[in-house]
Amino acid sequence: MARLLGILVAAIAVTFGANWLLDSFVDEYVVRIINLCGISIILAVSLNVINGLCGQFSLGHAGFMAIGAYVSAYFTTTLRYFDEAATKYVAIEPMFASEWGFVPALLAGGLVAAAAGAVVGIPTLRLKGDYLAIATLGFGEIVTIMITNFEKVGGANGLPGLPPYSNTFWIFSFVVLVIMLSWTLQRSTFGRALIAIRENELAAEVMGIPASRLKVMAFIYGAFFAGVAGGLLGHLLQTISPATFNFMKSIEVVVMLVLGGLGSMTGAVVGAIVLTALPEALRDVESGLGLPGIRMVVYSLVLILLMIFRPQGIFGQKELSLKLLARLLPGKKGDK
Amino acid sequence: MTALLETSDLTIRFGGLTAVDTFNLSIQEGELFGLIGPNGAGKTTVFNMLTGVYLPSEGTVHFREKLINGRNPVQVARMGISRTFQNIRLFDELSVLENAMTGAHQHSKLTIFDSLFRTPRHFREEQRQRDRAYELLEFMGLEDRAGLPAKQLPYGHRRKLEIARALATEPKLICLDEPAAGMNTGEKAELSALIRKIRDELNVTVLVIEHDMKLVMGICEKIQVLDYGKTIALGTPGEIQNDPKVIEAYLGGD
Predict the structure, then answer these.
(1) Which of A4, A46, A177, A189 best tests the B interface by mutation, with the highest count of B CBs <10 A?
(2) Which 3 state secondary structure label does DSSP give A159?
């Protein structure tokens, strides 16, 4: 535990330094992309616990993000809406009016999302495969439709004026946290139990592994970090609307996982970075060729080619480790 | 003395088909019990009812005087019944050692936070599971393969690993579903010795379903014969071998 704490403190110190360096010397646009990559990593790594480790195909991640984003915004942002009864505009001042309130607001968003994860997970995780995917997709749609019809948070127009609290430091602190916790989870008796459920649920249950309870646990874990990521995204974009969190967002995260290799945390990280940075990197190609729109064609082509030539994803189910690196380095053979 | 496992008029119907009909079974603690019968006799269905996978239509199952009907597989496993599968169900992506360790998971008292934040309890539990799993791999003669992914194991070893994993749950009763299927004569002899060792050294009561007559006759002290969901004979191997009904069921009569 002490070692873990040491790594955590060191990693957060590094993100603090990186935040300062990026803010001082690097182009704002690049910093923005790095930050978006960070949020994608949180989403992909947390979804990997549900879809990859536990093998439960969920398409509800955007729903949890939306909950996290709106709940955290509720605590940090002034809400202005038209009061029908009083026929005038009303403003609700935020509960946490300073930047100190950002982390509590994020955690509150994560906790509400986690609670929603439990509420959704307990009934739907009895379903398997495609049925679970459809049920979780439905959940995500319910969330966005509810927000659309909730005038106090801006309804379909969205909620503007979120304070710009998200920065590289906060985003990557949570990146470090989610990677570390997912790693310790994966390499524990619970991680093995989750993989056992994925590999053969009946055999896992006959071994006394409480499959339903662990599936819900994985769902809650993933939902919590999706909620936090939603809050971070909200305070980065400064405006959130239901459309930000539609089902395309969920599918985007699933594609990141599949691209990186479902079940591999390293793969989730790489998939998240590639899919977030690639469309931006391709902007140069677009302007260079003078063909507007070619960007998304190339992007799709990359995905298609990757799925044809490496259907198991970039990493398969492997993790990037020193041992794997040693084996890949030329001239140095592994232990065989 | 009351039996370790006792079923009374156990019946299960799938639509119009009565797969198992008023089945009575009584196994004493420490017995090595064989359940045999031709293909489709309902042996695996009995196992599925004993382990909570199927809910019987009628009748009861008592294990250590507690009712099993209506409990799910997880609860039954935690009461002390473990099993293997006719069509092997290993966790292919986990290593051989990790497969055996999953059997020990149910006895862990860890909370998820112990593992997430790596408390000393987490490390003690990992050590306990690893030691126990390794002991059982040694017992089954698989210790050299501990680090291999389970999917790379040869067939005979896969069967043994399933037994090791089932034993890691520390069961009172282990149900082996055709453990010798697909094995050659040498492997079968070795397996017979292992099954006897499970009972003698680990003090686990064994219920075995098997097609191979020689193996069952060689190791079981008591044998029950099932045909078309009904019990047609019960007795010692000697009695069973000479029972005309059994001979008819196996060789066919007119």
Answers:
(1) A189
(2) strand
What pLDDT is stored for residue B1 in this prediction?
Answer: 56
The 10s digit of each residue's pLDDT in A225-262 is 999 999 999 999 999 999 999 999 999 999 999 999 88
Task: Give B228-254 pLDDT, tens digit per residue.
Answer: 888 898 999 989 888 888 888 877 655
* pLDDT single digits (tens) A295-334: 788 888 888 888 888 888 888 888 877 666 666 666 544 4
Q: What is the mean pLDDT of chain B?
A: 91
H helices of A87-128, in order, are 102-124
Could you list the residue range(s) of the whole structural domain that residue A202 is in?
A: 2-19+28-244
In a domain, A11, yes or no: yes
Q: Cα(A137)–Cα(A258) distance, rounded to whole angstroms?
A: 18
Q: Could you tell me the pLDDT band of residue A97, with boundaries at 50, 70 and 90? A: confident
B103–chain A nearest CA distance, Å? 5
> Is A329 part of any domain?
no
| Residue A121 forms part of a structural domain | yes
Region A205-212: mean pLDDT is: 94
CB-based contact (8 Å) between A185 and chain B? yes
Round to whole Å and give the CA distance between B53 and A275.
43
Say what the pLDDT of residue B253 is.
57
Give chain A's domain count. 1
Mean pLDDT of B61-70: 91
Q: Does residue A134 lie in a domain region? A: yes
Q: How far is CA A262 from CA A51, A106, A116, in A?
A: 7, 27, 24
Nearest CB to B102 within list A3, A202, A209 = A209
Query: SS3 letters for chain B?
Result: CCCCEEEEEEEEEECCEEEEEEEEEEECCCCEEEEECCCCCCHHHHHHHHCCCCCCCEEEEEECCEECCCCCHHHHHHHCEEECCCCCCCCCCCEHHHHHHHHHHHHCCCCHHHHHCCCHHHHHHHHHHHHHHHHHHHHHCCHHHCCCEHHHCCHHHHHHHHHHHHHCCCCCEEEEECCCCCCCHHHHHHHHHHHHHHHHHHCCEEEEECCCHHHHHHHCCEEEEEECCEEEEEECHHHHHCCHHHHHHHHCCC
Distance of CA B13 to the CA centre of its chain: 23
ipTM of the prediction? 0.93
- Name the residue facing A208 among B101, B106, B119 (closest C-beta): B106
**Quick check: B31 contacting A, CB < 8 Å?**
no
* Residue B174 and residue B204 in contact, taking contact as beta carbons nearer than 8 Å: yes
